[in-house]
Design goal:
Structural class: mainly alpha
Helix content: over 70%
Radius of gyration: 20 Å
Shape: globular
Strand content: under 5%
Number of helices: 15
Number of strands: 2
Largest sheet: 2 strands, antiparallel
Distance between the termini: 22 Å
Length: 425
């Protein structure tokens, strides 16, 4: 699809020029509304199940089940969206999701056995609308080949982090101040309303890619690209930060007798992520995205190291802010690399693999963190982000050559680390 940027091509890439892209606001506004539930789902399940069972381990496990289901089914949803169009996948998906959430709430409040909660969590997670990847795919379709694409990746990461500022705070406030199920009820309502509104914006959705029967790309998958697999592992580590921080902050504030401050603590963490994202998107980088990721990820692993030693809310808030500041550069650069590594017809699927990896890592982090908290204390749950990012960093460093986009390897070998003279991420 041709680029539809209506500004001077010689203008310096930036947020102002990006937001003047023709038709962008028609999917940005409904997309922002529709992606709020993504940040509310796991914390909503965690708080509801912990209230009804009294166990962080059980709550984390049910939350993790939803996250695993989302991670496994999200790429299939992305592949279907690439092939048949986003609206045809999204409309039935939001209806199924709302029904699954209603079932999960009913079972939890009825003190149903744990196996029933696990069973209900599977469709709830599997049907989670992948709005973020769909928005990114729309940007990629509009900006294909434009120097504004990295700016769009930064803008979307900032939007995601703003979502993670609002979503957990809203879900926590509703669950603790209104009713334990209020967070999930709101999540379902936003999913239906925002999802249908976003699906209605058909003029900006990428053109579906039809593959002829028996064609050479019949079984092609974005995951067949080695760089996508490496990024998925890196994003698993980032997800472990989200999950570990989420369950540990919830337990830590409750342990100190201030459960209402959980949303503020997690919001501070997410705010750091958002601030760093804004800065990253405003900088004209002169080093390749691959090198930036190999710098940003070790800093993230290092920032998670002192979390377990926090002994007061102000200390935890400061450390959470620092970790948040280190997440955005890694996330933004990873999404930027996808645009260069993956063909246009597989981008929605590729984005959902990464988003699903974050969700899977988040689920695993919440489950393991919950077990550690039940067995020891809230502080031990903060070991999860450290171990998760450290393990992913080892893989990232070992397989870093897979992150070199096709066509850049020869250039890089001659001493040039990037294709464009100006790259904004």
């Amino acid at each position: 699809m041709a680029t539809t940027v209506n500004d001077n091509a010689e203008a310096k890439p930036g947020y102002g020029q990006l937001l003047r892209t023709r038709g962008a606001w028609t999917f940005l506004l409904p997309g922002f509304l529709a992606r709020q539930p993504f940040a509310m789902l796991t914390i909503g399940i965690l708080l509801l199940v912990e209230h009804t069972t009294g166990s962080y381990g059980k709550a984390g496990a049910v939350s993790a089940t939803a996250g695993v289901a989302m991670a496994l089914f999200a790429p299939q949803s992305g592949k279907l969206a690439d092939r048949f169009g986003q609206a045809r996948v999204l409309v039935p998906g939001v209806v199924v999701h709302a029904a699954a959430i209603a079932l999960l709430i009913t079972l939890a409040l009825a003190d149903a056995p744990l196996w029933a909660l696990f069973a209900a969590a599977v469709p709830a997670g599997a049907s989670t609308p992948q709005i973020g990847p769909m928005v990114r795919a729309r940007w990629a379709a509009k900006l294909d080949g434009s120097p504004l694409m990295p700016t769009a990746a930064a803008f979307e990461s900032v939007t995601d982090e703003f979502t993670f500022v609002i979503g957990p705070v809203l879900a926590t406030a509703l669950c603790t101040g209104v009713h334990p199920a209020a967070g999930l009820i709101t999540e379902a309502v936003l999913t239906i309303g925002g999802g249908l509104l976003f699906a209605a914006q058909r003029s900006t959705q990428p053109t579906p890619v039809r593959i002829a029967a028996g064609g050479p790309e019949k079984h092609a998958s974005a995951l067949s690209v080695a760089g996508v697999r490496v990024l998925a592992i890196a994003f698993l580590g980032i997800g472990s930060v989200f999950g570990g921080m989420q369950v540990s902050m919830t337990a830590f504030t409750k342990e100190l007798g201030e459960p209402g401050l959980n949303g503020l603590m997690y919001g501070t963490f997410a705010a750091g992520n958002m601030i760093a994202g804004l800065i990253c998107g405003a900088v004209a980088w002169r080093i390749s995205a691959q090198r930036r990721l190999l710098i940003a990820y070790p800093l993230l692993a290092l920032a998670t190291t002192p979390l377990w030693a926090a002994d007061a809310l102000p200390v935890l808030g400061g450390l959470g802010l620092l970790v948040g500041l280190c997440i955005a550069p890694a996330l933004i650069t990873g999404y930027t690399l996808v645009e260069k590594l993956v063909p246009a017809g597989s981008r929605t699927e590729a984005f959902t693999w990464l988003t699903g990896a974050v969700g899977l890592g988040q689920a695993a982090g919440a489950a393991v963190g919950g077990k550690l908290i039940d067995a020891h204390s809230a502080s031990t749950g903060f070991l999860v982000p450290l171990v998760g990012t450290a393990a992913a960093l080892v893989v990232l460093l070992a397989l870093r050559k897979a992150l070199t986009p096709h066509g850049e390897s020869l250039i890089a070998a001659r001493g040039v680390g990037h294709r464009e003279s100006v790259s904004v991420d």
